[in-house]
Amino acid sequence: MAPKVKTPAATPSKNTPLSTPTPGKIASDILAEQATVVDNDPLPAATITPRVRKLAYPLPTHISPTTINNTESLLRFVILALICGAAIGSRLFAVIRFESVIHEFDPWFNFRASKVLVNEGFYEFWNWFDPTAWYPLGRTVGTTLYPGLMVTAGVIWHFLRLINMPVDIRNVCVMLAPGFAGLTAWTTYLFTTEMSTPSAGLLAAAFIGIAPGYISRSVAGSYDNEAIAIFLLMGAFYSWIKAMKTGSALWGMITAIFYGWMVAAWGGYVFITNMIPLHAFVLILMGRFNNRLYTAYSSWYVIGTISSMQVPFVEFLPIRTSEHMAALGVFGLLQLIAFVEIVRRLVPGKQFQLLLRAFVVLVFVVSFAALVVLTFSGWIAPFAGRFYSLWDTGYAKVHMPIIASVSEHQPTAWPSFFFDLEMLIFFFPAGVFWCFKELRDEQIFIIIYATLSAYFAGVMVRLMLVITPVVCVAAAIAFSKLLEAYIDPVIPESEEELEEATAHQPMSKAKAKKIAAAQQNKPEFNFTGILGGKGEKGIFGLDTRFAVVSVLSLFLFLFVYHCTWVTSSAYSSPSVVLASRNPDGSQNIIDDFREAYYWIRQNTEKDSVIMSWWDYGYQIAGMADRPTLVDNNTWNNTHIATVGKAMSSNEDIAYPILRKHDVDYILVIFGGLLGYSGDDINKFLWMVRIAQGEWPDEVQEVNYFTQRGEYAVDERATPTMKNSLMYKMSYYRFHELFGGHPAQDRVRGQTIPSTGIQLDTLDEAFTSENWIVRIYKVKKEDAIGRDLKAVTSFEGGKKLKKSATSSNNAIGGKKSRPNM
Amino acid sequence: MRPTSLLLAPILSLIALVTARSSTGDRVLVVLDSNVKKNEYSQFWESLETRGYELTFKQPKDKDAELVKYGELNYDHLVMFAPGAKSFSPSLSPKSILHAQFAGLNTIYFISPELTESSKELLREYDLEFIDAGSSSSDILIDSFNHPLESSSSTVALSVTSSLVQDNVGEILSPSTLTGGPIIYPNGIVYQTGENPYLIDILHASKTSYIGQDKLLSSDENQVEQAVSYKNNHKGSSSSSKDAIVNGKKAILVSALQTRDNVRIGFVGSTEMLKDTWWNKEIKTNDGKSVKTGNAGFISDLSKWVFQETGVVKIIDSTHYRKGETEPRELYTKKDEVTHSLTLAKHYTTANGTSAWGPFEVDDLQLDFTMLDPHIRTALKQDKSASVAQGTTYKAKFIAPDRHGVFKFVVEYWRPGWSYIRSSEKASVVPLRHDEYPRFITGAWPYYIAACSTSITFLAFCALWVSLGEGDKDRKGKKKAE
């Protein structure tokens, strides 16, 4: 609902309408408002003093309120539909530029899981044990993932088949994120409308539709949990506000359904789990407890918690981890307060005071003691590591290099706020200010949300996603307040005039009539500013209005331009396929990843195990369909550290590890030829660090730096570095490409020594066109028991002057069991 | 075992049945040095031919002695009888021989003190080291106490009881050889075997033997001393560390090697021991007794073993299944009772000289159920009830561990003289499906009761509320008024 117009209703100006300036969405809102007020006015019009408002520009008068209403809702609908269309459309760059392909890393796993879901049915999906992941540990996928995304895609796929539209599941997966972005725009509209006016809602919808902060996670092909999570987040928040406002258990249940879906879809559901209780708690502290809050919260908490416990991956977490304790505590507090309220109604005052105090103190002591006991006895798990890293950004780097190694877990740089939100980030505080100004229950929600997410977004790049909706909402509120103020045709009476009016109040009727007549005779609106040149004072002049509105429009245009540019240039790369520009401007597609993955698919045994750094695990499983040692589901730090150790050790140490894990091929990403900076040598230090976390005696980060503390790959590289498997695999035969010229690594900008690298335990199996992907085959043990170094030198034509163990033998060496 | 090899196995055994006694094939290439007189060894060639082998003789420099053609082996076995050859044609270069061996070529090297440096380099790849490294002329094994009466002390007679490495030869040599006459080792070289675990020592020097030069025996004592000490000095000068004098058990004369892929290679330190002179001949020993030499039996047994006639075991079938089923599964559930069965067959030669497969009975087979480390290690027991035409079935029954993951059924059987038995099959152990958990648990009764009682109480409360609430309209109205 629009805020009430401050001036009382009056007859609209009688002037022949000039053309209404601009579509005037807001103006029409006000008109409608006036109309309704007129309609509802119970008092006869004659009784009020006819006081005509001043208008800054003419408004049409002969339109009936119904028409205005209808037009308004039609316009709203059309605009919202267009916003949804824009939201979907701007996410299609990747599909148009490349093809309908799944992006990046995690989406490949989600896609693979979705295929299992639609091909083998829900129960098989639920019980899916994947022996190819985390070889040989395997992964019980069904109970270690958030199934919401796949189930959503599966339902859509089944529905499309039902209406005779057989669509490939891949296309459903690719288009899911844009589709849900459209829905997000819609829920954001609803949410903002609850906070402010529908016009603010439309602005918020438009903002969220194209804000890069959200687009970064939801372009077509980015088939990740976040793709539907933001829709669910906004849906849950909207229905929570609705439930809290209306006190309806039905809305509480709808909140719970959104919440349950969110729990099934994204680990970030904890944000809702804590947002809603916090909101309720703040309301209680502000003395705003009422039965509506009680009903809404209780129905949400009970149904929501039960539904969240149906997700196998979550199971008993809601009652056993610290992250969920706030919701439980607030639930208990609400019961307590509700009970106290009832008692207060029944028991006389003095006794009540005593009882209340004793009761509250008792319950508090008992429940707190229970919580402490449970935590110490291990029933309630303390906070998880990822949670701590939210409070102490240095925590992960020290204790969990695996978490710190992910680029999206780094603290956010300030420019990325502007990059992702452009002008919205500046309007955001203004919006929050407006919320403070009104401070209704629902606006408190915005304030809490804004505060929390602003902190989180500063801590982790990844959580930019969480702040984006609230920034859009708050900015839209601020923006619409501004536009409203400057488009609203009503010119409020200045204080002098008001004073004058009050001063003349006891005047005779005649005088009053005279004034009224005079006013009626006067033209009700004044062309001012540039057009009129008649210095109507203050900021209500048309020139000021025009200036502000046009500046704001310019902002909007720039915002759209910026969003489109960011989306197109930064967020639409599938990262599976790379694109570059030739000197003549034409596009050059670099398809090394798929080339290599298909090579594996075509040329290796079905059960050959591929070792790579965990980043590529999902892609190998998805595109090459081969078992991997580690993948992006980084649940087992030791296993990842094992791979890290193999990569960072020399061949003698690495080879037994490789053989123990049945590794047949090793895949490394090398960008040195092309200048692709996301390659394994750049990630190498993380491998070292993670391995060092497990084997501090065997792998030491210091050994990979030069004496001067540089990370070098040229002649200055340390022997440890040069002998590491990763270095050898990356630069094996690299210098041969340059035919005698210095071999230049384009990522590091260093010259690789041209002394050949000798690989004893590996054979080069495949190198992609641009050398981005290199695959090595692990040699088997020598059939006649030589060590592989000896085999290489024999094959290289060297002759043995002495047998391998003759000197040992003379002093009584002992035979070992052969390695089978 | 891959299905293709399962299919191939009977076909291959059929082929073997009609052709030769070897389990792999009967084409033998003999690389004979030009200065070796072929007919001095006629009995040896004859013994091979009577066992059904087609012998092809080539010279070391023959260009057409191709071991591998178009990726296929041209011969199944190789006899390298060219210790003194200075150079070989490219097709017989060390590299091509090794590669052919990786592809399945069984080989016997007959070496002698004339062994050239290039041949030594190849043999060093197998981790053999030669005593007289670097010396130009030949040091040979000499035993003044044990030699046939009419021969010089360079023709060493080795007792089968003291010179054979008893732990290793049980399956390689036949019982008659093991108890037979002395093995004559004339003008033989001595070498050491390294730590290579695939090497099997067969025959070592006697206690009384030493290494030296034969010609010295006719000279005076002084020179003998010199010859013996010469070796020591020489060793001392070539390497800074003082090497021990290799003698007795460390001085290996005949050894064998079985590669990871069960390709067999033999190393015989003396070419002359094949000579017709020693082939099934009576000799007089030092103490005047007349005994039959063991050479024929020894060499035949060794060549039978190297040419895959004896000691060959193959896996006929390997499977695993759950209790009450017969087919192997890819997924087993935790705590399933799983049976792994393995059928092994031993190769033998029938009375009429054809190849056949029969039962292979041992009592020390074991099975590992492994994921990185063995989770279960249990004995594979012979299953008498299984009716297998050729072979013996072993079974192990166990309860799958309570740990999900990709497990391997691993059987490794590694005994000198037998083929390495190596079988590894992958199967996953998975957690229970959602509907496989027990439905009602005794321990959970408090929860069932709690759930039921809460529901009932809630319904009762609602009923009470509704019925009481109807009568309370007045009060409600009052409240509203307030």
From TrEMBL, chain A:
Membrane spanning stretches: 74-96, 144-160, 172-191, 197-215, 227-243, 249-272, 293-313, 325-343, 355-381, 417-436, 448-479, 546-566
InterPro entries reported for this sequence: Oligo_trans_STT3 (IPR003674), STT3-PglB_core (IPR048999), STT3_N (IPR048307)
Principal cellular location given in the protein's record: endoplasmic reticulum
Cofactor: Mn(2+); Mg(2+)
GO terms, biological process: post-translational protein modification; protein N-linked glycosylation via asparagine
Segments of skewed composition (Polar residues): 10-22
Record's keyword annotation contains Metal-binding: yes
Catalytic reactions on record: a di-trans,poly-cis-dolichyl diphosphooligosaccharide + L-asparaginyl-[protein] = N(4)-(oligosaccharide-(1->4)-N-acetyl-beta-D-glucosaminyl-(1->4)-N-acetyl-beta-D-glucosaminyl)-L-asparaginyl-[protein] + a di-trans,poly-cis-dolichyl diphosphate + H(+)
Record flagged with keyword Transmembrane helix: yes
Alphabetic keyword roster: Endoplasmic reticulum, Glycoprotein, Glycosyltransferase, Magnesium, Manganese, Membrane, Metal-binding, Transferase, Transmembrane, Transmembrane helix
Family matches, as Pfam families: STT3, STT3-PglB_core
EC number: 2.4.99.18
Gene Ontology molecular-function annotations: dolichyl-diphosphooligosaccharide-protein glycotransferase activity; metal ion binding
Function: Catalytic subunit of the oligosaccharyl transferase (OST) complex that catalyzes the initial transfer of a defined glycan (Glc(3)Man(9)GlcNAc(2) in eukaryotes) from the lipid carrier dolichol-pyrophosphate to an asparagine residue within an Asn-X-Ser/Thr consensus motif in nascent polypeptide chains, the first step in protein N-glycosylation. N-glycosylation occurs cotranslationally and the complex associates with the Sec61 complex at the channel-forming translocon complex that mediates protein translocation across the endoplasmic reticulum (ER).
Family indicated by similarity: Belongs to the STT3 family.
Protein name, as recorded: Dolichyl-diphosphooligosaccharide--protein glycosyltransferase subunit STT3
Organism: Kwoniella dendrophila CBS 6074
Automatic annotation (TrEMBL), chain B:
InterPro entries, A to Z: DDOST_48_kDa_subunit, OST48_MD, OST48_N
Subunit description: Component of the oligosaccharyltransferase (OST) complex.
Domain OST48 N-terminal: 27-306
Claim: Signal is one of the keywords in the record: yes
Pathway per the UniProt entry: Protein modification; protein glycosylation
Membrane topology field: Single-pass type I membrane protein
OST48 middle domain boundaries: 320-467
Transmembrane domains' residue ranges: 445-468
Key words, A-Z: Endoplasmic reticulum, Membrane, Signal, Transmembrane, Transmembrane helix
A GO biological-process term: protein N-linked glycosylation via asparagine
Gene Ontology CC, one term: oligosaccharyltransferase complex
UniProt similarity note: Belongs to the DDOST 48 kDa subunit family.
Keyword Hydrolase: no
Main function: Subunit of the oligosaccharyl transferase (OST) complex that catalyzes the initial transfer of a defined glycan (Glc(3)Man(9)GlcNAc(2) in eukaryotes) from the lipid carrier dolichol-pyrophosphate to an asparagine residue within an Asn-X-Ser/Thr consensus motif in nascent polypeptide chains, the first step in protein N-glycosylation. N-glycosylation occurs cotranslationally and the complex associates with the Sec61 complex at the channel-forming translocon complex that mediates protein translocation across the endoplasmic reticulum (ER).
Highest taxon of source: Eukaryota
Pfam families: OST48_MD, OST48_N
Cellular compartment(s): Endoplasmic reticulum membrane; Membrane
Signal peptide bounds: 1-20
UniProt protein name: Dolichyl-diphosphooligosaccharide--protein glycosyltransferase subunit WBP1
